[in-house]
Amino acid sequence: MSTSGTTTGRATGPAAVEHEALAATSLAAVGCGGDELLFLAGSTTDGLANRNSDLDLYVVGDFRVAGSETAARQGERTATVAFHEGREVNVAVLEPAALDRLREAFRASVASLSQEKGIAQLVDEDNLKILHRVRTGQALRRPDRLQELRDGLGTDDLPRYLLNVAAVAAVNRLNDVSGELSDGHRDSAAWMYREALVHTGQCALAAAGVTVPSVKWLLRLLQREAERGSDSGAPHARCAAHTARRLLDPPADTAAAVVETQAELAAVIDSVGERAGPYVRLVARSKLG
Q: Which residues contact 277 (CB under 8 A, 6 or more apart)?
């Protein structure tokens, strides 16, 4: 592989795009050369894009991006720079200093997984988005630098981190549902149960290595994972299938559904072994029976 690391080609399906043309447009908007890291990420690389999905590209450096609807958040400056067959082409510049802060924060969060007192969570959900997109992005320029960025941020730890966070959130929300049922608040319990299903689904997906943080894709991801694991009988695949079904068709008997979900969540936690930290195994897991 050359050091320039140019990657070209065309994706297939309804969200197909010519990568070389996309790279040229993006680099021109930022005003940098082909020696800079440029990667495509988001729904396109996650295999979830439709004909209206944005095309999200990232450059790392102290650059300014020229375009419309510019937004700035957590060390990320984004602008719409063009359109490709009706789809917005968005280019985001990630500031090195912000990535350094994210690296330290994520390291602390991952380190907390080995403790029994709780998990240190990343404060901003945008951080999860950046970690995921770096982890799953497709380099259009300098794939060597993208791998260096992944290694530096520790994105290999993202599935394990999300697994633990989602497991704790799911257990806590299921416990809340049981409390609402005990006090006779059936409608509130049914509503809370839907939130518990979201966390349970995220836990099942993380167990399979899926780290897409946006809830809007949850149903498609659960259905996809259920189909992939339909022959394996793996706990995360069964949990994904049942969670998707319950989200689409809320059960009439919330109490019975909670018991079933608790058992499925426990099976997922048990199946991942040491990937579940001591807080999940010793504290959260004990609440599931």
A: 112, 113, 114, 115, 119, 164
- The DSSP 8-state label assigned to residue 282 in this structure reads I
- Please state the three-class secondary structure of 22-80 as a single string: HHHHHHHHHCCCCCCCEEEECCCCCCCCCCCCCEEEEEECCCCCCCEEEEEECCEEEEE
Local structure of 10: helix, strand or coil: strand
CB atoms within 10 A of CB 145: 18
Give the separation between CA 149 and CA 136, rounded to whole angstroms.
12
Three-state SS string over 68-119 comes to EEEEEECCEEEEEEEEECCEEEEEEEECHHHHHHHHHHHHHHHHHCCCCCCC
CA dist., res. 115 & res. 64, Å (int): 41
Across the range 130-145, mean pLDDT stands at 96
pTM of structure? 0.90
Phi and psi for 73 in degrees, rounded to 5?
-160, 135
pLDDT in tens, 230-262: 788 899 999 999 999 999 999 999 999 999 999
